[in-house]
Here is the input.
Amino acid sequence: MKQNPLLDLTGLPNFDLILPEHIEPAVDHILARNRQQISRLVKDIQNPSWNNFMAVVEQLEDDLERVWAPVSHLNSVRDTPELRQAYQVCLPKLTDYATEMGQNKALFNKVIEIRDSDEFQSLGQSKKKVIDNAIRDFRLSGIDLAQDKQVRYREISSALSSLGNQFSQNLLDATDAWYVDVDDEQDVRGIPQNALDLARQTSEEAGAKGWRFSLQAPSYLAVITYADDPRLREKIYRAYVTRASEIGPDGGKWDNSETIDQILRLRREQAELLGYENFAALSLETKMAGSSSEIFEFLGELSNKSKEIGKKEVAELEDFAAQNLGHDALAPWDYAYVSEKLRQYLYDFSQEALRPYFPLPKVLRGMFDIVGKLFEIRVEASKPPQLWSKDVKFFKIVDSEESIRGYFYVDLYSRKHKRGGAWMADCIGRRSTSEGLQLPVAFLTCNFSAPVGGQPALLTHEEVMTLFHEFGHGLHHMLTKIDVSGVAGIQGVPWDAVELPSQFLENWCWERHALDLISGHVETGQPLPESLLVKMRKAKNFQSAMQMCRQIEFSLFDMRLHTSYDPDGASTVQEELNHVRSQVAVVKAPSFNRFQHSFGHIFAGGYAAGYYSYKWAEVLSADAFSLFEENGIFDPCTGRCFLENILEKGGSEEPMALFEAFRGRKPNVDALLRHSGLSPLEEAS
Here is the structure.
């Protein structure tokens, strides 16, 4: 086993050396070793303490995470049939192990002994939180269930893990499979040159002629937003909204319908096994929100503030289309296109006009300068370790005392066999070890258009915000000062609070002094001109109520699926979505829209009964940024306060207590409504 690169846990992952055939043997080895060590530990340790017991368990879990993290990452960014097969084989093994440990009565009793010991009161806050969280998680893993129910719980957990992976793979395959070739110049009118160059390059690489458009985000968005030809927009729209479903161009081939039903059925059964009324109640045990009724009330308040304004925005869009574009009625594939035309008409502004001002190298350097000013840190390129793609970059973070705080990989370009979207993931977590401090390492992943024709990649302002968002997550992971892995960085942070640092950092993308750092015309180097910034700000809340309603729709759909929906009842998932849309949507979706089949956040990610977290955390982030608005966006004292109370504390304390320590009070929704242009004052203006 010494030859297996996955079992070299002394440094960063050896991506160049990891082969699919290494994965299962490495996982089998580490699981067998961990089981043996845990068995010996609970038998031999008679007076368990943090040092002789919890620290040993933490080391075992960290070793397992360090084996699996690079595998999980490669599965997302460099999918191959062989890697996929190895990944699928290992998922049930890992789930079985996690559930087995969660139901290990001897292990549970040792943790209880520590919690009830004299030592517990002398432990620091972080270690106490780890122990309290562990006891909670034992109970959520079925530690109190009868043996037959524990067996069923394990079966459900394993099945859910496999089904979530199947959902994700179906979506990836359906996205990768579809494309349309266009060879008539008339059919690509309106599409930005940047997107046309990429489509031409994609076509040439495939040995085809003309332009090849796909369902990858940069390609899809360029067509649906800018293509003058409604037939092309319709073709790509229909393919996109029917991905991985029973209908559409590849209908039934990668269909997630049954996968969705099985996931919902098993989640409901698992929650009931543990004594919860529904899966949402189970999910909320580890979140800030106290109950599903609290979430429904929160979403209802946002809906009340935004729906009527959203209807007005839709009416304005329809009137503009009728008067200026000859549209008597808008088809589903017209909305993004007409919205962009209206934005340009009202504000003389387009996202595409901003691209030359945001070359990726300049944006990265400027973003690093901004967080440097805020948190007294320095981001530097580091000697690259073994990488999985030639486009990946590697950096380190150094603080004002010249101590390295962490490292991160950056993988920013869309490509085939790479999961869509943007995310931050742990590679290595911070923790104190017998050899010293283990520094955190993060993966930052986006899906921007790759450079074309010798130019650097050029970003829209929305893509700049996406990059800032993911880096905010990364800072939360890397700037932690907690040395206990269970609550260091984003670990142990409730899911509805974890978006706070990411959404918070987006705010600097709108500030003049920050924009001077991240913008520089690709040809002249000149920063974004004031005239464009004025237009950007005027257009900032363009259709913000429509966007708010859409997010509320997704959040309500998620919560209803995990509270009142019965997978074995008369209603279907589609009917549930239709019902939610009838309540809150301001844009009517076509009957063939199968949004749920690509809703990976809740069916293949961590957002089940938690999609509301984006809006919940947006309240926190908007209110947090309002203190910088009061004190200055680069005020060092305010930046240090956010660093010390939010970023450095990780999951060691309850997020509401940390927020109050930073802000001096509980959060309120006013700042979010103001930033979204939905407050009464904003409406009046």
